[in-house]
Amino acid sequence: MTSPAPAPPHAYVVTAGTDSVAVIDAAEHQLVGKVRVGAEPMLATLSPDGSLLLVSNRDSDDVSFVDPERLEVVATVSVQDGAAGCAFSPDGTLAFVANEHAHTVSVIDVARREALRHVPVGLSPCDMRMLPDGQHLAVTCEASHELAVLDGRTAERLRSIPAREGPLAIALSPDASLLVVGCFISNDVLVIDTASWEIRSRGKFGSGHIGACVLPGGREALVTNGDSDSISVFDLERCTETGRIPGLVNPACVSLTPDGRFAYATNRGADTLSVIDLATREVARALRVGASPLGLCMG
């Protein structure tokens, strides 16, 4: 008896203008489904085992738990005002949501589907990344111009790293040794050592950094330039911009396909998803996904 073919990897594109998530076959680069969620969804993340998709809904102040196989919302959990960035604990038992207008992070019990607490952090927390060891949760705080480092279980604030104006984009290197933080207002990009929590280097280029991802090997990052319709290639060691990928329209988030051959980027100005060939550093195609695409995750 032959084993069933493995399911293709998928990308989940949050389209705020249609209150839905578009599902992309990341092997064929094709739209294969959509699911309705809450009001003005912003960002999304998959649970460690891939069984749940968590989507933050900015206008309805809640999060949707989606079954990615059935493409159905299985639970809705209220959080606080301005739900944005989200993350799971490495064991999948907890979920965290940054509430931009309430200036808090909500801690959710995943099994019980309820918020346990809402913890004050910096001003306007936006996006977040959980470190693989589960001990630290890093959150960009746009209005207080800092990166808040929280306890990975309680979300209590452990330390603050001052940033330039408007830290928003955040990405973790493959080995989790570095965080890349892009500042939307000042156009700075910071490289932070996660062992010492010190800024290793900083660069200044492009404009309107909303999203970032680190390329395989951990030597370069892609950083979106929402105001100049491009993506910058950023050398983490030399802290310089080494190239620029044109052909986007107000790009927001960027992420890698699991095989590392392509990057996907959401274009808020064109209602599309760009497929970028990383071998040529060029846009290979654009897919219509729905109005105002912002968040993006792979799995």
- Taken from the alpha-carbon principal axes, the silhouette is globular
Roughly what fraction of the amino acids lie in strands? Answer: over 45%
In percent, how helical is the residue content? under 10%
CATH top level of the domain at 40-162 is Mainly Beta
Q: Please give the order of strands in the largest beta sheet.
A: 3-2-1-28
CATH architecture of the domain at 40-162: 7 Propeller
Kindly name the structural category.
mainly beta
**Cα-to-Cα separation, first versus last residue:** 27 Å
The CATH superfamily name of the domain at 40-162 is YVTN repeat-like/Quinoprotein amine dehydrogenase
Order of helices and strands: EEEEEEEEEEEEEEEEEEEEEEEEEEEE
Radius of gyration: 18 Å
> What low-confidence regions span 5 or more consecutive residues with pLDDT below 50?
1-5
Instruction: Please count the helical segments.
Output: 0
Let me know the largest β-sheet. Answer: 4 strands, antiparallel
Q: Count of DSSP E strands?
A: 28
Mean of pLDDT: 96
